[in-house]
Design a protein that fits this description.
93 residues; alpha+beta; 3 strands; 28% strand; flat
Length: 93
């Protein structure tokens, strides 16, 4: 939260700037290795990604959700969506 960021003197603008610098550096390193990378990737549906998976591969998307129980709590939940080649829908874990 904002209060904790202030207590720990974490500046969001500084973090965003550093993140952008690291992304550019990573892109340069990947290019040198012959790997192309997009800094602003296109949005793809899970179905599009599923079609590209091999039978022994899976896509795992992890999402952090703040827990709400009639009011916001300090707890969080982590949900993983798992997409496999032959599944009809992503599995939620």
């Amino acid at each position: 939260g904002e209060q904790k960021r202030r207590e720990k003197t974490i500046g969001l603008q500084a973090l965003e700037t550093k993140t952008n610098e690291l992304e550019k550096e990573l892109s340069v390193l990947l290019n040198r290795a012959g790997i192309s990378a997009e800094l602003t990737p296109k949005i793809h549906s899970w179905k599009e990604i599923q079609q590209k998976l091999q039978p022994n591969e899976a896509l795992v998307e992890v999402t952090r959700i703040e827990y709400f129980d009639k009011e916001w709590t300090d707890s969080v939940l982590y949900i993983a969506l798992v997409v496999k080649k032959n599944n009809q829908y992503p599995a939620m874990v």
